[in-house]
Every structure is written in C-alpha cells, then in structure tokens.
User: What shape does this take?
Amino acid sequence: MTTIAANSPTRQPNRWVRFLPIFIGIFFLVLAVAVLPPSLLQSSIRLATPYTLGALASLIASRAGVLNLAIEGKMVLGSLVAVAILYRTGLDSSAGVLAATLAGGLLGAVFSLLYLKLRINLVILALAVNLFIENITVFFMRVSFGSFGTLADPSIRGLSGINLPLIADIPVIGPLLSGYNIIVYISWLMVIVVAIILYRTQFGRHIRAVGENIGAAESVGINVTRVQVFALTLSGMLAGIAGAFLSIGVLSQYVEGMVDGRGWTAIVVALFAFERPIPAFLTALFFDFSEASSFYLQSRPELSLPPDLFLALPQLVTLGALIAVALRIRGNEILQRRRFVSQFGHELGKLRSGIVIGERQPPKAIEADTDESERE
Amino acid sequence: MNEHTGFRRSLETIGVALLAIFLGLLASSVFVIIAGSNPVDAYQRLFCEGFGARGCETFGNLLVQTVVNEDTGESQTVFSPLHGTGGHSLALVLERATPLILTALSATVAFKAGLFSIGMDGQFVLGALAAAFLGYWFPAQLYTLFGVTDPELAPEALNTIMHIIVPAVCLGAAMMAGAFYSWIAGYLKVKLNINVLISTIILNAIAVQFVGYMVNYPLRSDMNNIARTARIDETAWLIPFNRGLFANADIEWFSGSRLGVGFIIAVVAAVLVWYFLYRTTRGYEQRMVNGSPLFARFSGIPGTHAMLRAMLISGALSGIAGAIEVIGVERRIVDGFATAGTGFDGVLVAILARESIVGILFVAPFIAGLEQGAINFQFGNLPRQLGNIIIALIILFNAMEYFLRSYIAAIWRKRHIFSGKSITPAPTEASS
Assistant: This one.
C-alpha cells in the first residue's frame, strides 16, 4: 500500500523543533497583520476555510489508518448539492450547508463500505470515486437542471456574513476575526472539536491506535471497522462542508470545475501539519495566503503580470511545503538516530561490522530495522 | 499443473474484466434511465459511434452488417470491422488510443517499480510543448543554416533528410522533457521519501499552468480568438497512413483519421517495454523493487537506481505520447489542450489493464472508443460525461477483484458439481 511522506511521528525529540512551525506561523501572522492590506488578509482568512476543513477531513482519515484521496470528489459533491438543494427547495442557505454535509457524509460512508467490505485498493478507489463524482455532477447539472457550466439562479442566495458582537469592535484584529459567514466559524470550531476528539476522548485514542497499528488495536478489542467507518464518514462530512463553502460561501452559484484541485492541496496541508488539527489550521492560513496574494497581484493591472503564472503560485508553494516536510522528517530521523547511537552505539558497532549494503553481502536481520534511512 | 493454474488464472482475469464491463454498463444504465432514455438504445448508439462502421445501428452491426451496393442495388452481408466505406470509426479509435497506449505504458513502468506516479499528464503536456515548439522553430533554423529562403524551393535531398531528422528531434526533445519532469518526482521520492502520488499531482498542475502560459503568451502565433502556437512545419509531421503508406492504395478505412506512424511507434514501444520489464536484468530489478524492497536490497539490487530509472523511462514514454499527439495529430497546441487530461486517461487504462502490457493494447482502444462514442453521440439529452461515468464504474467493479474472484470461484466449483465430476480428478486426467 502506498504510504504517505509523514508517518505521523508520535515522539518528537525536541520541543523547539516540534513547535517551530507554530512559531513560524505566528510570526508570519503578526508580520502580515502589521504590513499587509486588511482586505487581502480578510480574504485569505476567509478563503483558507476549504483548506482547513479539507485538511481536517484528510487528517482524521489518515489518523484512522485510511489514506483518503477522495477529498476532491467529496468537495465537488458538497458544492453541487448545496446549490442544487437551494435551487430546488428555495430554503434558507443554511439548509444547503446541511445538505452538503449529509451528502459528503453519505459518500464517505459508501467509500468506507467499498474499502472495508469489498477490499478495493484505496488509491484506485479514490481515483475512481473522484472521476465518478466529477462527471456525475456535470451529468446531473445537464440532465436535471439543463444548465451548462454554471448553475445559478437569483433565488439562490449565498451565506451572509455574521458580525460577532463584541469582537468586531476590537481595533485592529476585530475586522479580521469578524464578518465572515457561518462556515468560516464552523471551520474554526471544527479544528477545536477534532483536536478534542483526537486527544481528549477515548474514541479519539482508539482512532489513533488504529492508525498507528491496526493489528495491535484489533488485538486489544477495538472495533476497527467501526472506527474507520466513523472516521471516513466524518471526513466526508467535513469535505462536504468545504465544498458548500466554495459554492454558496464565496459565490452563490455552482461553476463546473470550481473545486480545482483544492482537495489535493488540502491533503498536502494535512501532511505539512503532520496530521495534527491546530497546526493544520495555521498551515491552511499560510497556504491560502499564497493563493489570496496571487489573486491580489492579478487584480493589479499596473504590474502587468500574466495571470497563468500566478495561478501556479499556490502549487509551487505546495511543492516547496512538501519538500520542507520531507526535510523536517529527515531531520527528525537524524536526531533520533543520533540519540539511539549515543545509547546503543557500541552494541550496534558489533552487529554492523562486516556488513556493507549494496555489495552482495549476506545480511543480518537487525540491519533492516535500525538502518532503513542510511542506505543513501 | 502449473500451466493449468496459469491458464485458469488468466481466464479468470479476463472473466473478471468482462464481468466488470458488464456490471459497469448495467450500473450506468440507471443514470441513462434517470436522464429519460432507453439504456439499450443509448448503448447501441454509444458503441456504434465508438466502434461501428458507417450505418451501424444495432449491437449486431458491430460484427456483421448488410450493405446495399449503390451501383448494382444488391445488398450483401459484410464483416463490419473491415467495412471501411466513408472511413471507419475504428481508425479514429486507434488514433485516439495511441497516446493512451503510451501513457498507460508509462504508468505501468512506474507502477511496476512500486511508484504510484500519476504524473503522465504533466509529462504529456510538456512533451507536447517541446514538440510543438521545435516543430516550427527547428525547420526554420535548418532552412536558414542551409541558406534556403523559400521552403518550397528547398532541394529534394534536404527535404528528405529533414523529413527524418525533424520528427526525430521533436520526439527526442519531448522524451527528454518528459523524462526530466518525471525525474523530479523520482528524485524527491528517492532522496526525501516524498510520496510520488502527491508530488506528481502537484507537478501536473504546475505543468498545465506553465503550458497554458506558454501558449497564451510567448509562443502565441496569431491573434486568433483562441490562443494557439504556430502550425508546425510539414517536415515535422508524422505521416498518416492515408497520406503515406496507403496513399495510392486508397483504402477508405483510414480516411478521415490521422492514424499513422505514431501508432506504430506506440506498438513498438509496447513490445520494447515488455521486453525490458520481463526479459532484461534491469527490468527484473525494477519489478523486484516493487515486489519486496527489502529482499531486493539484500540481493544487492540498487533500489534507488531502479526507481529513478523507472521514473525516467516512464516520463520519456509520456513525453513521446505528447509529441505524437502534436506532430502526428494536432499539428499545433491550442489553448485548452493542456487541461484536457489525456495523460490521466492513460493512468486509468493502466489501472484497468492491471499493469499488463497485452491488456493495455486491448483496454486503450476500448476506453478510446467509449470516449469517442460518448463525445459523438447525441442520444436524447444524454451528456457526453456518460462515457467517463461508465469508465469510472468499470474501474470500480474491476477493482472489486477480491469479491468477484470469489464469486467466479463459487461458480467454477458449482459447475464441477453439476457436471457430475468428482472433486478429486480421475487418475487418467492427472497423468495427462
């Protein structure tokens, strides 16, 4: 099975290394508040929501030992369902959010059934589900609504901003924390909720146990199937809300291809945060800052920059982030190995004598466990 | 005994694939019914548009067709895959399948080395960009070099040489572009253990944006509404069959399609990849890295080299696919070419074919035909997305191998029971 770059390390050797990304995040936030125009900051906080929710969806699934690559498809489904429900029923826009959540959750549950009961390869399943959802949404748009490319109607109203009563009055930060629509606040709430579920409840400990070692978890009586079904359903619900944000949170219409790879970026956000909720939120803010600034720079004709290159900016940031994550993991490995060698170095030396990897020498069993990363 | 199980296994694989196709079509018919059409009629239209000859109406016409001879008025029954009056859609299917075969081979080479790379799309568009640029730039340079002012008046010898050199240069450059792009992902995997799946998805997006930018700005040739690069020089073309080889034979089967040298390249590539993977030491090393990385390492196989080599070959194959699409079919890159996702279809073909080279040669035309049929047919109000829906469902059912196999095995056992044979074979059978 394909494994992902971050193996969600449980033990971090150094407190400072561990909190480094949070400090960097806070540093950037303070710097940003001081220097940048408030409209840019507001839009980047607002537009970070799908990344936050998508990253939460990704991390809760991978914490339960399931590589969920179908977040893109769930987002697409959520964004169409939200608009379609409003179009058909004419209800208040919060009904759209609810419908998108349910649709995402349902897809997540079906996904978990296909994976757990029919034993479909996870990656193939995710690719097929993404392909299916992307096409079925367009199919139903044409067939049921007769619309091409865009599903819009004056009766569909997007979510309106909510001003938080006390916070809005704080001088500098007030406008940055208030005035968003409900999904933004839901995403902030969900960061805390997911963190509490994962770290402060028994069920969360079960989720993490399943993700760490599925066999061990099963042997101590944890119902692995139930944990994974729950995680995938919750993951689908979160991705569904993220989709609803794109369609009725930002605009009040569904545009074909509006999700545009955000589901994949969200997976990278979760990776970058080592599958932890609060760092994932900060990472999402940082990621979206790059996207918001690309829009901001595009909207300035006096700079006369070609828009296509700026659309690639978030992707380049993502690639840079991936490399940074990998370097961080590598750094951790080196630290851990040093510590291990300082404790058991003399024992290791005895075992290692005479073994050179790559030169057709008979191996000794322990070499495989201790020296995995040293082969290059 | 060994042959027997091997034969039965491949029979089962084919059985699973056919069952998956059937189930996929069955499941998709739900959506056809929702759209208000009759599934049987819709599928007849779909398959006739995809695979049939002119005048194909029913499933039966895919094989046998009654044709009325216009001169004599007689009607005769013909074997329709070879009945090419007015051009056959199978020629178009093979034209469309050419890049699919190459990108599927590319995916297979990567998958076989345990690298789930889906970077075919990015490598494909970069290869196409390289070929499209060199296709008009390189001949112009050659003409200046040899002092030819008007290409019409170029000496015959120069033209002949250029007809060989320019396409070769285009293909070579596309190979290198694709291989380099794929190497990035491979290097990140080998050095930093970054998941190839994730990195190739991001690299794809970057490549697509980059090609979009290049087509819209630096390489834009004219002020046409839709941005496009300059048309490549005629010396850079890969000659289609109906112009070159069979130009005098006037075989109507090919008319209307640009099926040509590119398809031969794809088939040759398939044979070479098969030979490389299954008959050479390095191919064995690559497959070994997937099967058991630790065992491969202890046997002295340099895993990192094998992985990087796999990524390079994979990228080169995708790059060639892009080049063939440009110099063999499209002749230029039009805006929107990059976002069409042709490279990704190759990944789907490789998944459906279960990484089997022979399988790819059958699955690629099948997928190409489904897509073509879905694009061409306007049955009732069915949108063309139906094609991809069917493909996605077939992939899902095909991936239920574990489930379907046990189902088939149950049928197999039952057949033995019903045919009255005992479970243990008779001694005569065992000895033969």
In short: The radius of gyration of chain A is 23 Å. The CA atoms of residues 219 and 311 of chain A lie 49 Å apart. DSSP finds 16 helices and two strands in chain A.
